[in-house]
Amino acid sequence: MPPRGLKAVIEMIDKTREDELTCEQVHALLGAYVELKGRERAVEMPLVAEHLCLCRECLEEYQALARILEGKQQN
Q1: pLDDT over 70 percentage in the chain
Q2: At residue 2, does pLDDT exceed 60?
Q3: pTM higher than 0.90 for the full model?
Q4: Residue 23, pLDDT score
Q5: HSE-up (13 A, CA, CB side) for residue 26
Q6: Are 66 and 37 in contact, with CB atoms under 8 Å apart?
Q7: Where are the domains of the chain?
């Protein structure tokens, strides 16, 4: 059995698709993505949603942006 890190890399490669977005493309779309609500995100921007499931760095960017926007809405 491969080490845990190697197994994760193999799983990511297995989930790779031809129509994936790059991190740069996702960063350009995050503003629009974070403004969508719940299920709308997966329906309207499925490639962004999928990328965020696979890329921890982009997910962290999204979460940070979401926190900032939530803070502005509360003020």
Answers
A1: 75
A2: no
A3: no
A4: 95
A5: 24
A6: no
A7: 20-74
